Amino acid sequence: MSNKVKVNLGKESYDILFSSDFALSIKNHAEKVKSDCLIITQKNIANLFQEQFKVLHNIDNVFFIYLEDGEKAKSIDSIMKICNYMSEKNFDRSSKIFAVGGGVVGDISGFAASIFMRGIDYYQYPTTLLAMIDSSVGGKTGINLDKGKNLVGRIYQPKEVLIDTIFLSTLPGRQFNAALAEAIKYGFIYDRDLFFLINNNIENILQNRSIELIKKIITNCCEIKSDIVSEDVNENELRMILNFGHTIGHALEAYQNYKELLHGEAIFYGMKCAISISHKKGSLNESEYNTSMEVLNRFNLPLIKIQDKEKLIALIKNDKKFREKEINFILLDEIGKAYISSDIKMNDIEESLSCI
Questions:
Q1: Crossing angle, helix 286-296 and helix 263-280, to 10 degrees?
Q2: pLDDT per residue as tens digits for the range 274-287
Q3: Which one from 235, 334, 350, 351 is the annotated catalytic residue?
Q4: Which of 17, 23, 110, 258 shows the smallest number of beta carbons within 10 Å?
């Protein structure tokens, strides 16, 4: 199994590496420059890996900013805090940002790196399974607004992504379970074999956390996303299929004020709705529909009630994938093959909400 995946983007190409020592990687990168560098992370991560963070605190040109937990940290206030800190400390164009955390940390770090002095280098060290297989790769950064998730941001590629599976040893079961939504998503939209690899090994993945199996899944997901991103950097057509389940999923997160559902849990529900629409529209046959739903139903999800459907519909309409008042919705032809449909009406979406 390869320890490196290449993301081919011309001058912006970078590697996704597997390593067992993230602290050493940061130390090596920081020591290559005379400028000050910044680690953006969270207190709970530093507390769980005190030995590694002790090494990092001993690097002369490395400073720290600790973000709050949760999606609420993805705000313009967090970005300004980071940029003001770097300005006050006289960071320069050669300074580097190291994002040590999950998707929230990665999104904020990448966005701050993209705008400080019109762009400085940043490196991703994902600490959650979700970030390892999805958000750390591809360069999408963003913050949330009151009206929706990731409505402000840009695409800005990291210089490198390093995956250290030591972080998975402390990942809570609920987060681990939720992260597999994105892995299954890759199976649904692109790789039928990956879908059935997960389907046939769910117990071994969730209960035993087989590192070999998990690393294979991470590698497959990174290879798929690398292929898609390399062909469509700016999310014009092909890359849009990565949003399978996300139109409704993001709206559910916002509806719950980013408190009740983890991102992956919301995407599980969003995929159920998308699969239901795919079946209704006739593209996904009965057998594939049943197989898809059976797999998703094997994951424990929090029960949610939609008491204000109009509010949820309004949040769905605010999604970035509405273009010229028409929604581009990702559907399935079959397991492993997705397509973009602009033939979806709001009543189709409303009917699909019965899957929640």
A1: 170
A2: 999 999 988 899 99
A3: 235
A4: 17
**Confidence band of 348 (pLDDT split at 50, 70, 90):** very high
Q: Catalytic annotation on 93?
A: no
Q: Tell me what the mean pLDDT of segment 123-143 comes to.
A: 93
Choose the catalytic residue: 11, 118, 259, 325: 118
pTM check: above 0.70: yes
Alpha-helix residue ranges (DSSP H) falling in 89-210: 103-115, 129-130, 173-189, 192-199, 202-203
> Can 192 be counted among the known catalytic residues?
no
Catalytic residue, chosen from 149, 185, 246, 272, is 246
Task: Catalytic residue, from 29, 74, 185, 263: name it.
Answer: 263
* Contact indicator for 163, 132 with CB cutoff of 8 Å: yes
Contact 111, 79 (CB under 8 A): yes
Common-topology check for domains 4-170 and 173-355: no
What's the CATH class of domain 4-170? alpha beta
Question: Hey, what CATH class is 173-355 in?
Answer: mainly alpha
182 is catalytic: yes
pLDDT tens, residue by residue, 158-189: 999 999 999 998 999 999 999 999 999 999 99
